[in-house]
Amino acid sequence: MDKLSPPAKLNTSGDASAQWRAFRQTFELYLKAPGDSSKSEEQQVAILLTIGGPELLDVYNTLEFGPASEQCPHPEYAIKKVLEKLDEHFAPKQNEVYARYVFRCRTQKKQETFESFVTDLKLKARDCNFGTERNKMIRDQIVFGTNDEKARADMLKTEDPSLEKVIKICTAHEVTKSQLKAFKTEQSMTKEESDEINSVKRRYAKGKAVKNTESAAANGPNMDLKTCRYCGTVHVFAKIKCPAWGQKCKKCGKENHFAKQCKTKPKVHAVLESSTDEEILAVTRKNTKEGIYIILERRDSKEKIKFQVDSGASVNIIPSKHVLQEELEATGTTLKVYNGMTLTPKGKCRLHLRNPGTGKKYSIEFVVVSEDLAPLLGRATSEKMGLISVNYELVSAVQTGVTEPNNVTKKFPDVLTDGLGRFPGTVKLTVDETVTPVVTPSYKVPVNIKQQLKEELHNLENKGIIAKVDEPTPWVSRMVVARKKSGELRICIDPQALK
């Protein structure tokens, strides 16, 4: 008992009944500790009142224990009698309807663990008098109140699940999310020589911004301490650790850095990139001498970065390892690699660079990606920086003979008639039965083309090119819509799953 810390004092603020139940359970465990079997009942009552604190002592002094008897000459010192009287005093005035209302309103909070959520549900169920339906009621509330939509979907798919089953499902989902987060934050930094061919299409989604969900606030034991370029002190590279975060610079008026670290210059050659539909064809060979490269220096951190100059690219790309979390801004850009793989940028940023060869300074906007791609300078940026030049006067148009359409239609009148025409017979497509069918979710259609898309689909249906399907089908490919330069819509499917 001498080495065992006593329980905390009883605090009757809030739910006094729940506080007393928790205190009594802790006290009884305390009495069962080694070395206390010889304590008399009077000593046990003294221990109870001492560790319970002044609030419990005041309650004890108001209790009436009744007359003494031969079996219990001093009821006020009988530990069982004292605990019974305290139970009666702290017993809540039960209201079953209200208790069930509180139970039904209980949902899992945003950052709350599932274990904490289900434990609190079980505690609240004690006052609801559910009887034999207790487990089913708790099971239902877990399904209603969980904040994990995927776990809820799995529970609804399970036929008549038990309480143990839904707890197992939710626990598995929580553990899986934690493991996936660990995979995401502990990426390997090993660099391997590789050839990468990137064909990236950049599209802007109207009214939609990419939210950066990753946080740089994690402060692990293996993180290096470095001199911060924003405050000038030494700390872990995390915005919550930087004293300049949220502060306004007295020199330039911008936020998140101190004036002594401000890099604002009177005049900078600005390079701007803006496009709504751009194509990037970049052939990158890492750790080789092939291709055209230039080394630029970051003006703030003096970091030297090797960029590939690509005259066929129309956007600038940089991996996230060269950019701090607090430098990122939201972007509505979507990057799609030529093989169908979609890359979701972490955001965009503007870097202040210097050409060590010429001494010129530039402010360039980059799209930031998680993948370890080679840093890339697009055509427009490279041309404005003077890295490449195009002799437009040497470019000539190549003209070829064009056959008059009327001559072709006159020569083949039985083939070239009005309309699209239709081949005779029926085509049967054979599908490998061993392949699992895939139902691909559809893209959201921009509001400004919805009506035009609906009219075009009706037109194609009327011409017999497509047919409306009103029943389930094992294979579904998502529709891809693009606007042509003429204003018409190009409608096709994304066959990625079919490949």
TrEMBL record:
SUPFAM superfamilies: Acid proteases, DNA/RNA polymerases
Protein name (record): CCHC-type domain-containing protein
GO molecular function: nucleic acid binding; zinc ion binding
Residues annotated as signal peptide: none
Gene Ontology terms: biological process: DNA biosynthetic process
Domain CCHC-type: start-end pairs: 248-263
Superkingdom per UniProt: Eukaryota
Classification via Gene3D superfamilies: HIV Type 1 Reverse Transcriptase, subunit A, domain 1
Organism of provenance: Ornithodoros erraticus
Keywords: Metal-binding, Zinc, Zinc-finger
